[in-house]
Amino acid sequence: xxxxxxxxASEAVSGSVLGLLLSLLYLxxxxxxxxxxxxxxxxxxxxASGGDTATTRSFGIPEAIVxxxxxxxxxxxxxxxxxxxxxxFSARNLLANFLITGCVVLVIVTFLQFRxxxxxxxxxxxxxxxIRTLSTGAILLFxxxxxxxxxxxxxxxxxxGGPSRQNIVEFFxxxxxxxxxxxxxxxxxxxxxxxxxxLFRFFxxxxxxxxxxxxxxxxxxxxxxxxxHAHLPSFAPLFVLGSCFAIAYEWSGSILVAxxxxxxxxxxxxxxxxxxxxxxx
Length: 281
What we know:
Blueprint: H1 2-49, H2 61-83, H3 91-114, H4 119-122, H5 130-159, H6 167-174, H7 178-212, H8 214-228, H9 235-252, H10 255-274
């Protein structure tokens, strides 16, 4: 019995060491992939500045003014959320959020078309095929996960406790009807990725990149994306996630890749909530 116990303990130690080693390799691969993407973006920029550049119209002063108004609106919304954290999240709030953000997107699209921009070409909507968009988004999200989980683990250490979940996640977990869950799924998987990627990556990042460069554009748009969720324990993981979305968009040239990553991320999160016995916390 004693030798069997020692053998079992030895197996457990070997398994934990192997798991730790695989996790470390996964993290290193993740860092390598996103550093490589950043290097390729930088090299492409240098080559374009050498003379081989496509004549693509960029955002101007009018777009910068609209982006500044949008950022101000987001700051006011974030401030209201922080000052009233006790407000109960509900289906009505979710619907109101969708209507407001949908109207904002519609206004920006109309404004850009009035200004003569081809939104489809500018966002790279026709750049990649459906299969390539889906596979690229899935692969880049796969390599983004170690960075997200690492930032989440560091945040939990700093907050000295388990992960606190966002309002919409709590709402999904506590929903009692299939109608509520279906509404959340549609919003999280189909609506939020399109709306948020259009606002934060396509428009805000596009304007910031035009006037402040890619690094500041990625950083500030990701900070704004994380702050807009008004959930401090999730700030660091959301910042990393937003940065990965921006890098994926810049590297691929298609906002659909970032939208795909966002949709897959939300889908996996909701699946883990719906089937907690399969997924670890």
